[in-house]
Amino acid sequence: MASRRPVRAKIRNFFIAGNSSDNRNPWAIAPEAADDFSIVVELEISANGRTEAGCYRVIVTTPKYLAHEVAEEGSRFGRRYLLVTQWDWSAIMELLRDEIESIADATWQDVHDRLRRVTMWEYEDFGIHAQP
Prior knowledge:
By secondary structure, the chain is of the alpha+beta class. The protein has one domain. 26% of the residues lie in helices and 27% in strands. Strands 1, 2, 3, 4, 5 and 6 form a 6-stranded mixed sheet that branches. Helix 1 links the parallel strand 3 and strand 4. The longest helix has 12 residues. The radius of gyration is 16 Å and the shape is globular. The model has no long low-confidence stretch (mean pLDDT 85).
């Protein structure tokens, strides 16, 4: 019996959440301080060879920003964060692409489950399953 090719995650698009004017163009924004920011990056991810995509989010932030937050709030959970030292959209995009597109498994559901370890799926708490 021939083995099937693994299903691999493929990023179709990146954009910055909440930036209504240019959210499809991340190069059009820059934080006030390159070493002190937190943004939510939305990723449209699909299975290799498929056009349908789901929306996943990751918080890109700096240690300096988190230090301020922890000082104000006393604590902070850290799941689904990408920590970077400074704003460099090209480098952030490359890090996300390398991590996400390295995820492969036997089925889309398996890939989706692995994606949810590093991202938040748009239907995270709705109790439904991902479609490829």
